[in-house]
Amino acid sequence: MKILVAMSGGVDSTVAAKMLIDKGYEVAGAYMRMCAPLTDSSHDDSFEAQKVATELGIPFYVFDVHEEFQKNVLDYFCESYVKGKTPNPCIICNQTMKFGVFLREARKLGYEKIATGHYAKICNENGETLLGRSANRKKDQSYFLHGLTKEQIESAIFPLEDADKDEIRRIAAECGFENAEKKDSQDICFVESAPGAYVEFIEKHTGNSMTPGNFVDVEGNVIGKHEGIARYTIGQRKGVNMSFGSGKPLYVIAKNGKEQTVVMGDNDLLFSDTVTVKKFNLLYKDYEKENITAKHRYGQVDVPASLEFTEDGGAVINFVSAQRAVTPGQFAVVYDGEIVVGGGEIV
Asked: Would you call 189 a catalytic residue per the annotation?
């Protein structure tokens, strides 16, 4: 079988390629250049990926996909923030780029499967190919992969599956790979983690400054001024630094992109036991209703819930216990034990 591995220059994708080679597959590596074309004097992670591919003795390709990345991911990221949402670009990138564009290019080159360094599983149940989560819960990335199509899942291989990160680094060190101790990439690869970096990126990418607006209370009364709704997220208190004369701490309860307002209120108002999502991507139709768990943010532990579908293709997830700071633009994902049932964008 011919497999094309998405190689980033990091240790996970490197060891994933090594594992597949050791199993006797015909393996090649490829790097997706998602930023603007380089100048002659510039370097990016493609150089590290190519070096590793050379050490492994496998063919290597570079796909220049920066225009599609801008359209599919960067534009979505900026537009979501401007509309008052809190986007998750990693999920959209997996859908459209890493398992979309990359798979398309792999097929052009004659590769049957693609592989990545994600910590997740491809499961088979009664002849159906399903997405499962890694037993390594600290690294499990099934949340970020819930938006894949059935075809994308059937075309994918996740060599790392349940692997422990220390074990991955040990394998890399034994093989003499220089990236054995390379730090993991940050969650959003195209934005620095420095304070205010999101806003700076959005302003630069769109060419527009943030639109000022009002802080309002839950009754709509203006209680202050802000410099752009993208600077705030649901549940936030730190960084607002204002009680707005109420004599008690207030939190960001909601954002209104149309009115460009940020709603402030008591912490109690942040809790909800119901989440509505749009375009629910159903991956597992034969799930057991009594086994359903769900979460509305990546870093959470999933909790018991129920799932109801709506006529418009969305769904309503009812949590057994109220959840804090359910955030429009993020994604809620549903599980049946180790299998991903599906998920969708929170509205």
From this structure: yes
* Statement: residue 83 has pLDDT above 60: yes
Catalytic residue among 78, 93, 123, 175: 93
What pLDDT is recorded for position 63?
Answer: 97
Per-residue pLDDT at 37 = 60
- 146, with CB counted inside 10 A (0-12, 13-18, 19+), is buried
Query: In this predicted structure, which of 60-64, 146-150, 224-228, 333-337 has the lowest mean pLDDT?
Result: 224-228
Which residue do the tokens 């990545």 mark? 116
Give residue 260's Cα distance to chain centre. 26
Amino acid at 249: P
Annotation marks residue 93 as catalytic: yes
Question: Nearest CA to 144 among 152, 133, 128?
Answer: 133
- Choice among 35, 123, 175, 189 that is catalytic: 189
CA angle 147, 152, 156 (to 5 degrees): 115
User: What pLDDT score does 183 carry?
Assistant: 76
Please check whether residue 44 is in contact with residue 35, taking contact to mean a CB–CB distance below 8 angstroms. yes
What average pLDDT does range 196-203 have in this prediction?
A: 90
- Exposed / middle / buried, residue 11 (Cβ in 10 Å: 0-12, 13-18, 19+): buried
Helices (H), the chain: 11-22, 45-56, 66-69, 75-82, 89-93, 102-108, 142-145, 150-154, 165-174, 197-206
Q: What is the pLDDT of residue 187?
A: 65
Summarize the confidence of residues 90-114 as an average pLDDT: 98
Q: Are 326 and 276 in contact (CB under 8 A)?
A: no
pTM of the model: 0.93
Q: What mean pLDDT is reported for the chain? A: 93
The whole-angstrom separation of Cα 42 and Cα 335 is: 43
The structure tokens 């003499």 sit at: 176
- Residue 244 to residues 217, 220, 267, Cα–Cα distance (Å): 9, 14, 15
What lies within 8 Å, CB to CB, of 67 at 6+ separation is none
Task: Count the Cβ atoms, other than its own, within 10 Å of residue 293.
Answer: 17
d(CA 244, CA 232): 16
